[in-house]
Known about the structure:
Elements: E1 7-9, E2 13-14, E3 20-23, E4 28-29, E5 32-33, E6 41-43, E7 47-48, E8 53-56, E9 60-63, E10 73-75, E11 80-83, E12 101-104, E13 108-111, E14 115-117, E15 121-124, E16 128-130, E17 135-137, E18 141-143, E19 164-165
Parallel strand pairs: 1-6, 2-7, 3-8, 6-9, 8-10, 9-11, 10-12, 11-13, 12-15, 13-16, 14-17, 15-18
Antiparallel strand pairs: 4-5, 17-19
Amino acid sequence: YNPSPIATVSSTLDFGGAAKAITVNPLTYDGKAFAPYTPNLHLSGIVQNAGQITVSGGGVLQLSGASTFTGGYTVAAGPGLAIGAGSTGSVTSGPLGTGTLTLDSGARLQSTGAHTVANAVSVNGEVEFEGVTSLTLSGGAALAAPPPRRGPAPPPRPPCPAGVFAAGSPC
């Protein structure tokens, strides 16, 4: 189930080359968050001429426009990023622009359909992959070194298919 976004921006967004921060707060009622997979903001238009865009706030930002900016997205701990379109090959446009997707520890990533994203990805800790559809990350990936472990090591996990993160899988 992919619910409708709360607000949609379908026009072109030109940020004049500056880095920007987007705060997307979760849906709440009586002080409690609900509907964790519902996008609070959907950017379906083209984002252009932007530096790095940082997403924070605990809500879900959905991206689906054919954006061309080079700054990339950084998703802080807490918010979700829903990918609503794909990009393949040499990325010239796509929902993430042409830059790197950086996922900080505690970030959430989901897909609104079976999409492939060719942007480079940098993962800085534990990230949650949510939703009911698969997302293939086919660009280069940089994974941060894990912190030193104290105590016995956990049992080994079964191997995961390269680049495919499916909802409900241990990958």
